[in-house]
Write a structure and sequence with these properties.
21 helices
Length: about 450
């Protein structure tokens, strides 16, 4: 009976993911031919039309790696150079990213988070826009989702196949867009800061640490995932080891305006570009609009600052999986913003890889919300009828009461809305060890 129920849920989830993917595909295809190429698209088509040796030679003196233009070269050879034919290439990557978002969110959280991620990626106006643009950003998005999901699986399970997938996704992502590296740096920050150093500190307090100055290799015994990550990074760096010397061979690398390390239309210079920083999340959330509407959206920056301060209070309460996405997404985004004080690179499209992790983080948070309007309303009416409105609706629970609720859940009885049950969905997002002490929560934390 349980197996049949689970199979029914899986079938319903699969049907919903397919439906959302088809709706997202329709949004991306319905207006594919409504506008002509703009400057960057014509540049990409021109570069992709060169012979492969010329593409590699020219892209080494350009602001992008060669993988997208190389694949687009063969795509154009088969389907032609019209607007629809060329844009069908990034649209294909953009559509594939929708079910892949389900897999990534399900891998880090669960199926419910995967469904929220599927909806967010399918209907995001920002992602719909760049799926219709003949550029490499949806291709980078796919590799970012593969990298995020495979690294979490590799760290949690230690299986070599996930490290192999992570190495392939990372290698492809770095050869698609240089800004993919910020996601890799943020993932390394999570691994060393949260997995390795924090574990070494815990083992040191317990007297079980095996690493020492004379035995540095003991770190691999304390943190076995570090060996897999280093191996994956070695193989992922092979394409870059071939490509970077060709880029460094250009003497004007750090000078001028359009060289590989000089983005934008002005020479590098330090400065705080506050409006550009606010515009990036605004475009990710609301898409692109007229100058007047964009001005009104940017004017809401105090709300974003307030929300950031409110969420900062949860920084010490995050679960491992939430910390992974937060460091990968927010940490990588902060790195790009820091470089943005030197280079005019604060464009929303450059945050595609790190932004994917943030969207998965939002999907994980949304999956913890269980809205129920009827039950609180009925409780309020009952309390008004009995004249008990002066009493608090939510009563704090002691250890015995919370433990009794856990037993009631095991016996199939209905629980009150207040109090945290060990299977409460919020525990997927927050660390149960920081919630109020109780036997059931303690058992849940130990099991995690």
């Amino acid at each position: 009976m349980r197996h049949g129920h689970r199979a029914g849920i899986n079938s319903a989830n699969a049907l919903l993911v397919i439906t959302l993917t088809l709706l997202g595909a329709a949004l991306r295809l319905v207006s594919l031919n409504t506008r002509s190429f703009w400057l960057d698209e014509t540049t990409a088509v021109r570069q992709a039309s060169w012979p492969i040796p010329e593409i590699l030679a020219q892209m080494s003196d350009n602001v992008h790696p060669p993988l997208f233009h190389t694949l687009l070269h063969y795509w154009i050879g088969v389907f032609g150079r019209s607007e629809v034919a060329v844009r069908a290439f990034p649209v294909t990557w953009g559509i594939f990213a929708i079910p892949l978002a389900y897999w990534a969110a399900k891998t880090v959280y669960d199926r419910r988070a995967g469904l929220f991620a599927t909806g967010l990626f399918a209907f995001s106006p920002f992602l719909v826009w760049y799926s219709q643009e003949a550029r490499m950003y949806t291709m980078m998005l796919v590799f970012a989702l593969l990298s995020i999901g495979s690294m979490w699986k590799a760290v949690e399970t230690g299986r070599p196949r996930w490290w192999i997938l992570y190495a392939l996704a990372t290698a492809a992502g770095t050869m698609t867009q240089y800004f993919f590296l910020f996601l890799v740096f943020a993932q390394a920050l999570y691994l060393f800061g949260y997995r390795v150093f924090a574990r070494e500190r815990t083992l040191g307090l317990a007297g079980e640490r095996r690493v020492a100055w004379r035995r540095p290799w003991g770190v691999f015994a304390d943190a076995p995932e570090l060996r897999g990550w280093l191996g994956a990074m070695f193989f992922a760096a092979i394409p870059s080891a071939w490509w970077i010397p060709q880029v460094l061979a250009h003497k004007d690398l750090f000078r001028g305006v359009t060289q590989p390390f000089n983005y934008g239309w002005s020479p590098p210079g330090f400065g705080i570009h506050f409006n550009d920083m606010i515009l990036v999340p605004a475009e990710w959330i609301f898409g692109f609009h007229s100058a007047l509407a964009t001005h009104d959206i940017v004017a809401t920056w105090p709300l974003l600052i307030t929300l950031a301060f409110l969420l900062a209070g949860y920084a010490g309460r995050l679960s491992d999986r939430t910390t992974y996405l937060a460091v990968s997404g927010i940490g990588g985004t902060a790195m790009i913003a820091l470089i943005g004080t030197w280079q005019p690179i604060l464009e929303a499209r450059y945050f595609t890889a790190t932004g994917a992790a943030i969207v998965l983080l939002v999907a994980g948070f949304l999956s913890t919300l269980r809205p129920n309007v009827v039950r609180p309303l009925v409780a309020l009416l009952n309390r008004r009828r009995t004249g008990q409105l002066d009493r608090p609706v939510v009563q704090p629970l002691g250890d015995r009461q919370v433990g009794q609720q856990a037993g009631d859940a095991d016996r199939g009885r209905r629980l009150p809305r207040w109090g945290y049950h060990p299977a409460h969905p919020i525990l997927r997002f927050l660390d149960p060890r920081v919630l109020p002490a109780s036997p059931c929560l303690r058992r849940r934390a130990e099991a995690a």
